[in-house]
C-alpha cells in the first residue's frame, strides 16, 4: 500500500541536547570538520543512512540513544564547546569588519541556484556551486550578504543509466520539513507570503524558507501552496524546467518576489537593508524593475529611479555564448507587466526597452527581451568571471555601446574562486595543518586519497550496474576496477557539446594503448549530466558509456552517473590529473580544476577560463588549441586538439608520474608540481580572494554610488542624462590642429620624448564644457591605421565660444616609444556620478575619422 500523505515525526530533545538542532540547522557544519564529526558521533549508522545530512539523522535517532548521550558528560562538554564556537563565529568581527571602511551595511545576492551541500540539491552545475561558495566565503570573511533564490521541490534531477547507457532522469520530491529550513514568519507566527499579480486576475503566492549558511541568511521562495492554482503551484517545481512562460514566472518570482521577501525579512528581523544588489546572471534581472517600482511609489520619476537602481547594482554574467542567456518574446513579457498584471504603476514601454536586444539575433527575427541585456542596462557595474571571459563578454555585448571599441565596454572581470574549507579533503587539510610534509609523506597522502576514490568508484559503479539491471553474480569484476597505484585522470562537468566529453575518444586505438599499458597504466573516471532536453548531450554520454563498457577496458575507464557535490568531493581528492578540454573560449571560468588543485591534483587543460590567466608549467599542462585557425571545421579542430591531448599524455604526463628516483622510489618531479600547485596556485583559486575582490572593486564602489544618489541627486543625474541625450545630435568635432599645424608652434613634430600640442574646435549643441570630456586618443597604429593600446589624454577648454559658437580645447600629446603613432579626438559625456566614459553609450568623433567609425555616437540609455 502507498501512503496518501507524508509527514515527519520529530524526536523531543532533552534540554541539554537541544543545541544539536542549532548546529544542524546552520550549514556551517558542512565545511567545519569538528562540528561535522560531533554530529556524526550522535548516530554513526544513522549518519551514513542519511547521506551525511544531520537534520535527517537527528529526525530518526532513537530515544535510547538520546538518553545515553544525555548521560555522557564528555559528549555534553564537546557539544557545549561546539555551540559556543559557532556563536562566536556568528558574532565576532571578521575581515570585513576590520578592513573595509565605509562598508556596505548589507548586500543582496540573487541567484537562480545555490549549491551549498549535497543535502540541499538546489543546483545544476557551476553557476550554483559558485553561488554556494560565494555565500560560504562571505560568511567566513564577515561580508553581510543576504542570499535570495528559489526552493525547487524536485531540485534538478537524479541521473541513472539504462542498460544501453542512455541517461534517465528521476525527480524525487524534496520535503522542506526534512531539510535545514525554517519558515520565515511574522512575530505572531503567521508565515510570510509573497504575492505576484498575473494576467487574467490570477495570483502567484510563495512562502519563504530561511536557511542559515554560517553568518549568511539565504531566503528561498516556494510556490507549493494550496492557495495557488495548479500551474502557479508548479512554478518552483524544477530547476530550469518548463517552457518560456514557466521560466518567465520563475524569474519573476526570483527577482520581483525575491525583493519582496527580502524586504519582509529585513523588517521582521531588523537586518540592515541592502545597499548593493548583486544579480548572479540574468535570471535575477527583474529585481531591478521591482526596485524601480519601489522608488517611483516613493515619488521618484522613472529616469531618476533607474539611475538610483543602477548605482547600487552589480551584474555578473557567466556565459560566453548567446545560447546560454534566457530570452523571451516581448509580447509574452508585455502581458505580465502593466495594468492587470505586475508593476501596474509603471509604463510597460520603458520596462520592455530595458531588456530589448539592440538587434535581432538572426535575420528576420523580432528582437527579444534578453535577461542579460536587462542586467547590463540596470547595473552600473558588471563583470565576467575570468580575465578571458571579461574580454569575451566585452566583445559579445559591444552592441550595447555602439561606436566604442570592445576594450572600452564597461564590463570588468573577477575570476571565480572555490571555497577551500568545502573542497579540501579532510586528510589534506589535516596534513597541511601539521608539520611540513616531506616527499614521502606527501606521496603517501596522495596515495591514500587515491585509494579512497577507488573505493568510492567501485561502490558507485556497482550501484549503477544494479540500476541498469545487472545481478550481483555478474558484478565480481568490479572488485578489480581501478588500481590505487595507477595514474588517475578525472573529467566531470555538465555535458553541453562545447565541453567535449568525448574528445578523448577521437582515436580509440591510441586511448586503449594508454589505458592498457602494462607498466604505466592510465585510468580515467568520467561523470556528468546532460540537460533533460539535450538529446545531443545524452548521445555523448551513451558513446562514452559504451566505450567504458567494453570488457577489456572497464577496469580502466568508468562513467559514474548522478554527478553532484557528494561525488565531486571524492573525485577532486583522489584524481592525480584533472582534464578539461572545452572549445576555447567557450568556458567562462570552469572551477572544477581549482578544486582538484586544492588537493594536489595537476591540471591538464585547454587554456580557457581561469587556466588561461594562471597556467604555469609548474602546475600542469596546456592543451594546444586551434581556435585561432581560419577555415577549420569543428570536426577537424577536434582531431587536432585530441591529437595534442594524446601527445601530452604519452610524452609528458604519464612519463612524469611513473618516473621514480632510484633511491627513494618517488616521482620527484611530479611531487615538485604537486607542491607548487598546493603552495602557489592554491591561494589564487580560493573564494576568499574572489569575494575580497568583489568587495573592493564592485560592492564598495556600488555602495558609495548608492549613497551619493540619495535625495535629489538621482533626479539631478537623470536631468543631466536627459539634457545630454537631447543635445547630443548637436555635438560635433570641428577642426583639429597639432604640432606644425599650429601657427604659434611652427616646425614642431612628433619625436621621442617630446610633447606635441593639440587643439580642437568642438560644437557642444548647447551643453557647457563641464558637461563633456574632450579627449585626444593616441597610440600605435596598425597597417589599417587602427589605434592599438590607445591612451586617452583629456583636453582642457581655453577661452570662450568663437563666433560660430564652438569651444576650443587644448592639451599635449607625448610619445614614449618610436614608431608609427596616430591619434584622434572625441567628445564624451562627463558627470562625476557616471561610472565610466562609455556608460551612456555616447561619443562624438571627427566625421572623417574612418579608423574609429565616425558618426555622432549612438544613444544606449
TrEMBL record:
Keywords: Allosteric enzyme, Carbohydrate metabolism, Glycosyltransferase, Pyridoxal phosphate, Transferase. Its cofactor is pyridoxal 5'-phosphate. Residues 14-120 form the DUF3417 domain. Its EC number is 2.4.1.1. The keyword Transferase applies. It catalyses: [(1->4)-alpha-D-glucosyl](n) + phosphate = [(1->4)-alpha-D-glucosyl](n-1) + alpha-D-glucose 1-phosphate. It is an enzyme of class 2 (transferase). It comes from the Bacteria. Signal peptide: none annotated. Transmembrane segments: none annotated. NCBIfam families: more_P_ylases. Belongs to the glycogen phosphorylase family. Phosphorylase is an important allosteric enzyme in carbohydrate metabolism. Enzymes from different sources differ in their regulatory mechanisms and in their natural substrates. However, all known phosphorylases share catalytic and structural properties. This is glycogen phosphorylase.
Amino acid at each position: 500500500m502507498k501512503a496518501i500523505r507524508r509527514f515527519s515525526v520529530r524526536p523531543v530533545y532533552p534540554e541539554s541536547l537541544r543545541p544539536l538542532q542549532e548546529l544542524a540547522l546552520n550549514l556551517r557544519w558542512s565545511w567545519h570538520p569538528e562540528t561535522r564529526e560531533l554530529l556524526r558521533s550522535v548516530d554513526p549508522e544513522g549518519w551514513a543512512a542519511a547521506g551525511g545530512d544531520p537534520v535527517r539523522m537527528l529526525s530518526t535517532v532513537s530515544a535510547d540513544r538520546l538518553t545515553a548521550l544525555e548521560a555522557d558528560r564528555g559528549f555534553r562538554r564537546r557539544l557545549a564547546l561546539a555551540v559556543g564556537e559557532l556563536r562566536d563565529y556568528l558574532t565576532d568581527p571578521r575581515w570585513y569588519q576590520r578592513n573595509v571602511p565605509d562598508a556596505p551595511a548589507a548586500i543582496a545576492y540573487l541567484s537562480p541556484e545555490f549549491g551549498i551541500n549535497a543535502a540541499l540539491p538546489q543546483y545544476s552545475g557551476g553557476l550554483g556551486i559558485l553561488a554556494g561558495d560565494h555565500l560560504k566565503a562571505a560568511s567566513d570573511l564577515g561580508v553581510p550578504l543576504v542570499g535570495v533564490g528559489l526552493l525547487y521541490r524536485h531540485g534538478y534531477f537524479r541521473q541513472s543509466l539504462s542498460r544501453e547507457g542512455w541517461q534517465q532522469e528521476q525527480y524525487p520530491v524534496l520535503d522542506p520539513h526534512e531539510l535545514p529550513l525554517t519558515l520565515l514568519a511574522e512575530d505572531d507566527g503567521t508565515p510570510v507570503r509573497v504575492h505576484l499579480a498575473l494576467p487574467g486576475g490570477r495570483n502567484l503566492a510563495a512562502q519563504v524558507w530561511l536557511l542559515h549558511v554560517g553568518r549568511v541568511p539565504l531566503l528561498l521562495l516556494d510556490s507549493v501552496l494550496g492557495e495557488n492554482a495548479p500551474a502557479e503551484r508548479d512554478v518552483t517545481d524544477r530547476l530550469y524546467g518548463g517552457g518560456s512562460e514557466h521560466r518567465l514566472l520563475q524569474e519573476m518570482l526570483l527577482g520581483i518576489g525575491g525583493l519582496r521577501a527580502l524586504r519582509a525579512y529585513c523588517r521582521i528581523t531588523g537586518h540592515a537593508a541592502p545597499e548593493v544588489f548583486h544579480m548572479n546572471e540574468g535570471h535575477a534581472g527583474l529585481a531591478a524593475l521591482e526596485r524601480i517600482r519601489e522608488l517611483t511609489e516613493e515619488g521618484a520619476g522613472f529616469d531618476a529611479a533607474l539611475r538610483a537602481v543602477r548605482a547600487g547594482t552589480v551584474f555578473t554574467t557567466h556565459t560566453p555564448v548567446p545560447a546560454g542567456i534566457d530570452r523571451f518574446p516581448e509580447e509574452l513579457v508585455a502581458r505580465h507587466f502593466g495594468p492587470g498584471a505586475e508593476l501596474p504603476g509603471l509604463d510597460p514601454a520603458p520596462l520592455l526597452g530595458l531588456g530589448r536586444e539592440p538587434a535581432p539575433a538572426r535575420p528576420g527575427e523580432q528582437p527579444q527581451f534578453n535577461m542579460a541585456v536587462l542586467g547590463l542596462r540596470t547595473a552600473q557595474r558588471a563583470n565576467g568571471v575570468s580575465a578571458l571571459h571579461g574580454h569575451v563578454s566585452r566583445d559579445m555585448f559591444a552592441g550595447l555601446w555602439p561606436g566604442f571599441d570592445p576594450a572600452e565596454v564597461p564590463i570588468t572581470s573577477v575570476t571565480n574562486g572555490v571555497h577551500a574549507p568545502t573542497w579540501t579533503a579532510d586528510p589534506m587539510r589535516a596534513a597541511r595543518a601539521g608539520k611540513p610534509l616531506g616527499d614521502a609523506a606527501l606521496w603517501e597522502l596522495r596515495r591514500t586519497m587515491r585509494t579512497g576514490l577507488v573505493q568510492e568508484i567501485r561502490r558507485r559503479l556497482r550501484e549503477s550496474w544494479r540500476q541498469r539491471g545487472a545481478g550481483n553474480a555478474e558484478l565480481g569484476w568490479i572488485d578489480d576496477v581501478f588500481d590505487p597505484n595507477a595514474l588517475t585522470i578525472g573529467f566531470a562537468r555538465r555535458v553541453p557539446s562545447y565541453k567535449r566529453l568525448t574528445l578523448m575518444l577521437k582515436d580509440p586505438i591510441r586511448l586503449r594503448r594508454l589505458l592498457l599499458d602494462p607498466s604505466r597504466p592510465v585510468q580515467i573516471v568520467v561523470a556528468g549530466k546532460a540537460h533533460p532536453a539535450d538529446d545531443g548531450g545524452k548521445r555523448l554520454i551513451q558513446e562514452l558509456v559504451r566505450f567504458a563498457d567494453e570488457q577489456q577496458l572497464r577496469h580502466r575507464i568508468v562513467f559514474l552517473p548522478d554527478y553532484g557535490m557528494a561525488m565531486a568531493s571524492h573525485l577532486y581528492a583522489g584524481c592525480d590529473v584533472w582534464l578539461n578540454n572545452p572549445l576555447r573560449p567557450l568556458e567562462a571560468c570552469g572551477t572544477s580544476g581549482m578544486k582538484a588543485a586544492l588537493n594536489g591534483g595537476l591540471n591538464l587543460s585547454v587554456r580557457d577560463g581561469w587556466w588561461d590567466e594562471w597556467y604555469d608549467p609548474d602546475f600542469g599542462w596546456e592543451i594546444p588549441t586551434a581556435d585561432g585557425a581560419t577555415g577549420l571545421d569543428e570536426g577537424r579542430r577536434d582531431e587536432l586538439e585530441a591529437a595534442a591531448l594524446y601527445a601530452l599524455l604519452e610524452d609528458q604526463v604519464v612519463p612524469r608520474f611513473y618516473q621514480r628516483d632510484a633511491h627513494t622510489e618517488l616521482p620527484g618531479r611530479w611531487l615538485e608540481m604537486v607542491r607548487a600547485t598546493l603552495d602557489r596556485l592554491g591561494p589564487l583559486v580560493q573564494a576568499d580572494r574572489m569575494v575580497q575582490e568583489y568587495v573592493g572593486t564592485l560592492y564598495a564602489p556600488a555602495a558609495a554610488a548608492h549613497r551619493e544618489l540619495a535625495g535629489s541627486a538621482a533626479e539631478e543625474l537623470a536631468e543631466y542624462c536627459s539634457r545630454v541625450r537631447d543635445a547630443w545630435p548637436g555635438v560635433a568635432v570641428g577642426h583639429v590642429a597639432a604640432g606644425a599645424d599650429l601657427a604659434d608652434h611652427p616646425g614642431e613634430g612628433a619625436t621621442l620624448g617630446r610633447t606635441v600640442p593639440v587643439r580642437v574646435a568642438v560644437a557642444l549643441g548647447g551643453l557647457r564644457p563641464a558637461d563633456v570630456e574632450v579627449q585626444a586618443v593616441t597610440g600605435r597604429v596598425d597597417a589599417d591605421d587602427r589605434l592599438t593600446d590607445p591612451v586617452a589624454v583629456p583636453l582642457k577648454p581655453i577661452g570662450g565660444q568663437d563666433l560660430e559658437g564652438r569651444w576650443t580645447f587644448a592639451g599635449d600629446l607625448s610619445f614614449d616609444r618610436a614608431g608609427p603613432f596616430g591619434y584622434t579626438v572625441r567628445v564624451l559625456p562627463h558627470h562625476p556620478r557616471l561610472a565610466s566614459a562609455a556608460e551612456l553609450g555616447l561619443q562624438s568623433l571627427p566625421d572623417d575619422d574612418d579608423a574609429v567609425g565616425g558618426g555622432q555616437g549612438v544613444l544606449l540609455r
